[in-house]
Design a protein that fits this description.
By secondary structure, this protein is an alpha/beta fold. The protein is built from 14 helices and four strands. Strands 2-1-3-4 form a four-stranded mixed β-sheet, sandwiched between helices. α7 packs antiparallel against α11, α9 crosses α10 and α13 packs antiparallel against α14. Keywords: Cell membrane, Membrane, Transmembrane, Transmembrane helix, Transport.
Length: about 375
């Protein structure tokens, strides 16, 4: 029996590689998504165009502008002579943010009064504008402390110095690549299994598979194990790419990572086999994968925290194996989480895997019966 199962696994791996559609699904999406999500789809804001309308010609306004121009985030500084020019630049999206320095800015500082600077941001790009405003506020606070020290004024009695645990530089690519380890292994294993049975139907070999000396459970197992192997390899490649090219740390144990990953992929494989059992063509299977991937990613916490979702979506997320696996992979890479935490997020995936594989087996048996 094991020899027959081994032959079916080898046959499935060869079929996946020889089929152009399956081969493209294995190679192209991971490469594209790795570069897009890690280098393009980032919440970090760089190369900001900043507009400046300086009505003051004093020393302090020039010093403040010099500090802004020295910041690596502001790569383009555009100067304006009037409010109308500044307004037109913001309307035309030539600048993301702009500052307007009051005409009495330097005189007020010399008189130990508060100098005023107006910050104007493009609200159409709310997230980027908020981050750019934060950059300018930090520069202004640092300049205030510098002026207070130079003028001999009392400094604040307390100062907040933030320290970011687990990701000291708030490197967003670490958050992204750990999410891709889960989403790409899910997408790959789901695509392989969803296309497996429908591919047999299109090629006319499904009936030959049914008359082989294997029952429905062995057939499904022969379809599931290759997808498991491919999904684990896909996740390992993403983990290695993050480690080599993005300096992703691996602070936890890989001995806890791989068993949980295998259980996660098995849960996804069950969903793929269920889709494949329902489909008659590979096109129908691809549509089924598309319908499943979107809600799985959205409710997983890949981009937004699950806690920020509505109560109904949070309940739905409890049935999503990707949610639990992302907690594990991010915890192992960034936090060195304990074995108890890994187990706490692994057993729900195991229950989901048993449920999805059991449902796929029952439906497949009923379909061929």
């Amino acid at each position: 029996m094991l020899r027959k199962l081994h032959a079916l696994i080898i046959k499935e791996l060869i079929a996946v590689w020889q089929d152009k559609r399956s081969r493209m699904a294995l190679i192209t999406p991971p490469i594209i998504q790795f570069f897009v999500f890690t280098f393009a789809a980032t919440l970090d804001v760089h190369n900001i165009s900043l507009g400046i309308l300086n009505r003051d010609e004093g020393q302090y306004s020039r010093e403040f502008i010099y500090r802004l121009s020295g910041s690596p985030e502001f790569t383009q500084i555009i100067y304006f002579d009037s409010d109308q020019e500044l307004k037109e630049a913001v309307d035309a999206e030539k600048v993301l943010a702009a500052i307007q320095i009051d005409a009495n800015f330097s005189r007020k500082i010399l008189s130990d009064e508060t100098g005023e600077i107006l910050l104007i941001a493009d609200g159409r790009k709310s997230n980027a504008s908020q981050i750019a405003g934060g950059y300018i506020s930090n520069i202004a606070q640092a300049y205030n402390a510098f002026l207070a020290k130079r003028k001999g004024m009392p400094l604040p009695l307390s100062e907040l110095k933030p320290r970011n645990w687990y990701n000291a530089n708030l490197n967003y690519t670490w958050f992204t690549i750990t999410g891709l380890i889960g989403t790409l292994s899910m997408l790959t294993s789901l695509s392989v299994t969803a296309l497996s049975i429908s591919r047999e139907k299109e090629m006319g070999t499904f009936e030959q598979l049914l008359v082989s000396p294997l029952d429905h459970r062995m057939i499904l197992l022969g379809k599931a194990i290759p997808a498991l192997m491919i999904g684990v390899v896909e996740g390992s490649v993403m983990l290695l790419a993050g480690f080599l090219f993005l300096d992703l740390p691996i602070r936890g144990s890989l001995l806890m990572f791989y068993p949980s990953m295998a259980i996660f992929v098995f849960a996804i494989v069950g969903i793929g086999l269920f889709i494949s059992s329902l489909s008659q063509t590979q096109q129908q299977s691809a549509l089924g994968v598309f319908l499943c991937v979107s809600p799985l990613v959205i409710t997983s916490g890949f981009a937004t925290p699950v806690e920020n979702m509505t109560q109904g979506l949070q309940i739905l997320a409890m049935l999503n194996p990707l949610k639990y696996f992302l907690i594990i992979v991010r915890g192992i890479c960034l936090k060195d989480i304990s074995a108890g935490t890994v187990f706490h997020n692994t057993w729900p995936m195991l229950l989901i895997a048993l449920g999805t594989l059991g449902t796929a087996s029952w439906f497949f048996k009923r379909k061929i019966g």
